[in-house]
Structures are given as structure tokens and as C-alpha cells.
Fold this sequence. Notes:
single chain; alpha+beta; Jelly Rolls; seven-stranded antiparallel sheet; 39 strands; disordered N terminus
Amino acid sequence: MIRRIFLILLMLGFFLQIHPNSKLSPWVRMIMLEKAMPLGHKKSVKMMERHDMRTTVFIRINNITEADAVFAANDCMVYDRQGDICIVSVPVGNIEKLASMSSITRIEANKSCNITMDTTAIVVKASSVYNGESLPQAYTGKDVVLGIMDVGFDLTHPNFYNSAATTYRIGAFWDQLDKDTIGSGYPVGRDYVGYEAVLAKKHSADGLMQTHGTHTLGIAAGSGYNSSYRGMAFESDICAVSNAISSNVSLIDSADIYKYTTAVDALGFKYMFDYAERLGKPCVASFSEGYTVGMDSEDSLFAAYLQQITGPGKIIIASAGNESQKYAYLPKPYGKSSAGSFIFSGRNDAYLIVQSQGRFQLRLQPYAEGWHSLDINSDDNTLDSLAVYATPEQLTAMAFRYPSSFNDGDTMYYIKISSPQPITGAVPIAVIVSGEDAQVAVRTFSSTIFVNGQGDSRWSDAEISHNVHAPACFEGVVAVGSTIHRTGFTNYLGAYRDYTQAGRNDGVWSVYSSVGPTLDGRIKPDVVAPGNNIISSYSSYYIEANPNASDVNSDVEHFDYNGRTYAWNANTGTSMATPVVAGAVALWLQANPKLTPDDVIKIISKTSRLPESGMDYPNNKYGHGEIDVYKGLLEVLNLSDIKEISKNEASNVRACFADDGNLCLSFNKAPNKTFSVSLYSISGRLLNKTIFKGNNSTTEYRVSVPKLIDGVYLVQFSGASFAPSSMLVRK
Length: 731
């Protein structure tokens, strides 16, 4: 009775109607809730009133001719417009007014993303697949912009020069955490344009506490300065954006905290594409970050905006995430009376999104003496409303109810759970969904996971699925998972470390790599790539500030350059696999600058290596398979359908055109039997075929060919000494 009276009083006191709530994404609703709370309820509310806090959001407006007047009247600053979608900086206090306008159909944002890196730093030598050494020399990423948005950049690392460290390659850099915003045309931070300005910046604002971006950029585009750790597109132009993640919150003024959203991340992609467009070059953007997607986020304005800015020569590659070992999805199908699991966050709060067709009850059941359960009934809330529930022990839940944006007939619930103590299992809290006539799915997010059977074995219904991060889960964004090729290394201190994954190092799926499907049933990821034990550059500033950090102690090599100590280090995760794919796509864009995201997916689907037999491809573990750069190049150049041309890349021979126009061959090992050399044009026309009698002593051969125009040609090798193979050669 006491609990019931307490609940009724809370419902009467806190049942809020936020008009019109259906236009606001859950995170924006949460901001509105804080604005509506009495002054002094939270410290953040006081700061909001004092500073008139702003946030950066996507806004869809159905009458674009009115947009300028509407935004000006509400003190909004518009930073980009794509069709009917605008990215806008708006005072938090004006959101409700904007939402009430008939011309505004949606206001949306989410908290900024997090890096998708395994927490353990692991080091191993990179193979030629990673560093590009096995690729034809003509395809180095030249005349392609490799864009990367990440955190923790050491802009001075010699890896971002050319291989001789004589020419700097980062042409533009937007530091979104920069405090110097005078003259900036962006909602946060400022940008630096030109090699001298970027180099003078030295490091990103978070460069003393992060080095992730230094590493991923090296994988995608590093020159490999004085080492074998060359990146994929090592002659590409570079444009970088340093964004904000949750662990960077200490670097952000409290009055600016809501400025850093997924809308700002979207502007980061646009920044890289705009830079490439000014140079007249194609661009592939690598993004080793993401956030747990909500039930309606896959049809969000973020996704729609990215579809607007991508296209020919504008590709986004994003990491799928490292969530495959986390239970984040709890389904309750029709006909099943109930389903449940336990929540864990390690904090005093936890977050759920519920998707339902039909009436249901969601019970929060603590397994501790004296604790009461808390019931959320689907018919307690009207659409576009907020309800607050509580127990005498102050286990509370705030529930938003709103219609689904991508599945007609579904109702969504955004639920924040708060507990008087950390939700760790000391007091196990079960999430139990009931309603035999309802189909319900519950998704965790914001560091919340399910733990099956933690306090009661009956509640073990959560699944490892549906955990690919946004924006990787969006259509038109290439989602990357990880495979494992190396398991051990010797660090710079001489200690060998073994990181064996069930004894496998043959390109199978990495056990942490997130799996699909998406929440609306599409297969993701699209492709996998090596992500385990990838050596790349590490920040000198991070090393200096964190000399005893565990990842620094795992460096494979330290070296000095211009009076500073730099490192080669390795990490593991889909963060590392993503720039491998981005660098590969840069090589393809060099061959065809007009490739679209759909083209890239089609190339991947036709040319990827299938890591495990007996599986249907594509699937929600591997996508279409592991990327094959060489076969992809053949597909880009329209050579893959020529029957005479082998799909195997020639690795035991080098080929080049001499000054006299003839073709010179140099074998690593003398072919001792008869072999043939065929020369094809890019159109597939046979230009020349020569047969040689091999012997045990000759490794150098010359092929007399007709006079040829400058361009790219394909050389085919066949013979008893080796399997049929081919390579591309530029004249």
C-alpha cells in the first residue's frame, strides 16, 4: 500500500506533457526534461539557466523557404543544409518553441560517439595486407583524400610525412575541442588549413590523454617512416577531424557540454568531403567510433544526412563495434508469456529502449531483501509523454513514450533507470517483459548490458545480436568487423606476449567483433578486415604525459625524431580494421574516383575472401567476407570478368616498364620450367604473349612489347613453376 501511494504521488507530481514530444529524439527530450525541472533539482540546470546552454541538432523542416526566418527568430545558427535537413546550433530553451512550429517535423541529436577499441593493447608485426606492400606500386592512394575522424592526434609524427619525412601530408585539421574559437565558423573548436598551420598545432586538444587517432590514421595512410609499418594508402592526402567522446568530457566547459552531439560528428564528415572537393579529389572517410543505436535511430536524421552527403567519390567507412560478447538485446516474441534478463552498468543509472506491438508490462525486479519491484505498463503513458516511477528504496524509472520512426504500428519507450547504489549485481535487478499478445524487444545502450541468470536462472533470454554500432548500421555506410591473423609479439623490452584466440590466426572472426542484424533486419557488418595486433604510430605527446601507461609499456619500438620520442605500437579492435578498409577504398578511388558507397559494397560482395566454409554469405558475422584489395582493384578496373586473367596476385615477381618501353621482370626465385607472360590492356585486350624456357640461374627477363601509351596494364603469369597469377603495372 505504501509503495502504491508513493507511486501515485510521484505520477501526479512528475507526469509531464512536453509539446509536441513526438518531434524530439529521446536525447533531446532528456535535455528538455532537465530544462523543465525545478531550479536547483540538478546542478546542470543552474548552469543551463546561467549560460543559456546551446546544443547542436539535426532539424528537418518541411518548408525550406521559411527556414532562415524560423531559425533567426529562435537565435539559431545554421551550419549546413542538405535538402530539408539542417544542422543547427540552438539554445536549449528554444527547443520547445521550435518543436511547436508546424514547419518543423523533427529535432534530433544524440550524445557524441565512443571509440571502438579493445581495451588491451596488443602488438604484432603487420602483414603485407595491412601495410600495402603487396599492392601494385601504382596504387598508393595518390590524388585521393584520406579523411579520418578520431581522437588523440600527434600531428608531428613522421608517419604523416612522406616516407623520407620531407613532405608533410595533413592539409586540414578541425580540432573540435580547441578552446581558441575566435574567428571559427563552426559550432565547436576551430580548424587549421595548410600544412604549416596544421604542423604548428602539434597535437589535438586531447593529445595528452588520447592516441587512438594517431594509430588509426597510421593504419589508413601512414608512410611508415623508416620502418615496415606502412599504411594502406601511404601517398594519400590527409584531412583529419578530432571530435569529442565521453572520456573527453573533462576538456569541455560545462556550459558547452550539449554542443557535442552526433550532429557535430556529421559536420566532421562534411568537413572532410568539402576539403577534398576544394582539391578536386575523391575522399574516403574513416570513422573508428560509434554509439549504441536506439530502436528508431536507423531511420534517423543522422542517417538521412549521411546519405545526402555521400555519393560518387565520397565514401564513409565505420567500425561495427566491439560488442559481440555483450548481451544487449532482449526479445519477447508473440505467444511467449514473458522474457527476462538482468541489467548491469557499473553506475547508478542504466538505459533501455523498448519497442512493442501490443500491450505489455516491464517489471524491474530487485533480488534483495526489502526491495520492491517496479512495474511500467504500456498503457500508463499517452504518446509523447513522460512518466516517472519509483519505489520506497528510490529505484526509479523515467519513461518516454513515442511512435517508432521506421516501423508503423510500433511504440517506443526510452527508459532511464536510477538506483541508490551502482547497478553491478550486488543487488541484482531483473528486467522482465510480460504480455503474451505482444511482440516486444528491449535494447540496452549507454554502457548498459544484460547479464543472463545473474540472480535467477529463469531470466536468461538476452541475446548476443543486433549490436552493430551507429553510424556503421546506417544504409550507405560501409560497416567493418574484425578478423585475427596474429596472436603474439615481442615488445620493445624483449618480453614475448601471447594473445592466442582459441589457437586461430588464419583470418577468422575476432570474438569481440559486433554482429548484426540491424534492428530493422538488415545484414551488417558489410565486410571484415584484419583488426588484431596491428602495428601503427603512437603519439609522442601521449608517451610523454603517460610514461607508465600499460599500452606504452607494450610499444614495439621507440625512436627519436626532431628531438622527440615517438613509438610504433599496436591495438586490437574494429577500430583497427576500419582504417584497413578505408585505405583499401582509397586505392580503389585512385583507380576510379567516381565510386559510390553502393559500388564499394558491390565490389566487396564480388571479391571478398570467405573466411569460413559452410556458411552463407553475406551473414551477420562476416558480412560479405574479408576484404581482398587486389581482387577489388581488378573489379574496379573492369578486369575481373576476363576469363584469361587470374584472380591470384603475383607475389614472387616484380614488373616495370623500362625507358625503351619494354617490360622488365625480376623473379625472387628463378623459374626452372617453361612459363608464359601475357600483357593485357585495361579493356582486356591481349597485347602480347611471350613464352620463356626457364632455368635455375636466370631471374631477370625482358619482354618486347608494342609501343604503348602511358597508363595501367595487367601482366599475367602462368607455367608449371607457379600457379597462374597477375599484377598491375603502370607505364
